[in-house]
Design goal:
Blueprint: E1 24-25, E2 42-45, H1 53-59, E3 60-61, E4 74-75, E5 87-90, E6 94-98, E7 100-101, E8 108-109, E9 112-115, E10 127-135, E11 142-149, H2 154-157, H3 164-167, E12 193-198, E13 205-206, E14 209-211, E15 218-221, E16 228-229, E17 242-243, E18 247-248, E19 253-261, E20 264-270, E21 297-304, H4 317-322, E22 335-342, H5 344-348, H6 357-366, H7 370-373, E23 377-389
Parallel strand pairs: 4-8
Antiparallel strand pairs: 1-23, 2-23, 3-9, 5-6, 6-23, 7-8, 9-22, 10-19, 10-23, 11-12, 11-22, 12-14, 13-18, 14-17, 15-16, 15-21, 19-20, 20-21
């Protein structure tokens, strides 16, 4: 969840093999206990089914009892919320994740939802399809996102049996960077991050970005001949990652999808009003990506071996520490996350073209922008995670 830049590394590959995906569906919906591995793959159709709050809690943790890792002006910890009904399921309509004015000046109560289950590409599970239909807020000072984050920490790996009540014990204890939990990884980016949707400051642009350790991957986006390391696409920026082309939308709503496989990831988008439930479509019972139109494919990234290493002049000391041994690691143990933050490291830094964009962003959300943000929400109408075969 951060900004990104591109540079060309000092080494090159002799040849790049185009990233081509031919996928056929074998997965189907499961609605079993969260202790059963099959329940990691599911469909929650809030538009057509009466999905209960209890069912939502089977799959997700809806509190984040830590400070915001992106340093935004939000409170994700439900123990500290001053507002009620921050997470609301409306029958045959959708799941609403709100952001509301807090009693702390310049801050908002917000929601950060994290899946209990983790996802990995492995034998017998060769490709995974993530689909979300809904809407995200588009307003100055705000930074909504739908993304995947990984970790190798014990607390993270033991999340399926955890509840929001279990997480409350972390409230007010430690910082996000030194307090691992079922929803917080302090070894970032050791297991990587995949940003499927990010949009800032009311811009109608959707960004797709990867964050990894230097030793994990090089990348090629959209068959561009330029090879980019997925750790620091900008020298000295430990959060830059690697990214595709930002694509413009009329509204920050519709259907978004990502197909993750060992050799790369494809990112898709269908505007609101397109028929996404037809046979083979992303919301059908048997999605078939081979039938999807090329115009819906927004970015592809091929993941390549790399000879890069963590270097003092290019990377942070904490980054190199977290990435020790990462040449033997990969994107792993990825959990799904929805959240809305304000200002922070990216939206704040890009708020305007002045010398003090973050301070100006914080002043805006404390003043005239407060009412524009208050009461906004992420609306989830449909959400699924399915296995695909190659």
């Amino acid at each position: 969840m951060t900004t990104f830049f591109k540079i060309k590394p000092s080494f090159a590959m002799a040849k790049i093999v185009p990233f081509i995906v031919l996928l056929y569906v074998i997965g189907c919906t499961h609605q079993s206990s969260p202790d059963n591995n099959s329940s990691a793959f599911y469909t929650l159709d809030f538009e057509n089914d009466n999905v209960s709050q209890a069912e939502l809690n089977r799959y997700f943790l809806t509190t984040f009892p830590h400070s915001d890792p992106t340093e935004g002006n939000v409170v994700y910890d439900r123990v500290k919320w001053v507002n009620e009904d921050m997470v609301k399921v409306k029958d045959s309509d959708g799941l609403y994740l709100y952001i509301r004015q807090s009693d702390q000046p310049g801050f908002f109560d917000s929601v950060r939802v994290t899946s209990k289950h983790m996802y990995n590409i492995e034998q017998g599970n060769e490709a995974i399809l993530f689909v979300f239909k809904g809407a995200l807020p588009s307003v100055n000072g705000a930074w909504p996102a739908w993304w995947l984050n990984g970790s190798y920490e014990k607390e993270w790996l033991e999340s399926t049996s955890k509840t929001n009540d279990d997480l409350d014990q972390y409230s007010g204890v430690g910082n996000y960077y030194d307090t691992p939990s079922a929803v917080n990884s302090t070894d970032w980016p050791s297991a990587g991050e995949v940003d499927i949707i990010e949009s800032i400051n009311g811009q109608k642009l959707i960004h797709n970005t990867l964050h990894t350790c230097p030793q994990m991957y090089d990348s090629v986006w959209n068959n561009d001949p330029k090879i980019i390391n997925c750790a620091n696409a900008k020298i000295g920026d430990p959060n830059a990652g690697c990214s595709g082309n930002a694509y413009e939308v009329e509204e920050t709503q519709g259907t978004f999808a990502a197909i993750w496989k060992k050799t790369g990831i494809e990112f898709y988008y269908w505007p609101e009003g397109e028929e996404v439930r037809k046979p083979g479509g992303p919301l059908s019972s048997s999605p078939n990506p081979t039938k999807w139109l090329s115009e819906n494919l927004k970015n592809t990234v091929s993941l390549l071996p790399t000879t890069a290493a963590c270097q003092e002049n290019a990377h942070e000391s904490w980054q190199c520490k977290n990435c020790q041994g990462s040449e033997n690691k990969k994107l792993a143990n990825l959990k799904m996350i929805f959240n809305i933050t304000t200002c922070g490291k990216w939206a704040g830094a890009k708020f305007d073209d002045s010398d003090t964009p973050l301070a100006n962003c914080q002043a805006y959300i404390s003043g005239e922008g407060k009412s524009a943000i208050d009461g906004k929400y992420i609306k989830v109408e449909y959400l699924s995670v399915k296995q695909l075969s190659l």
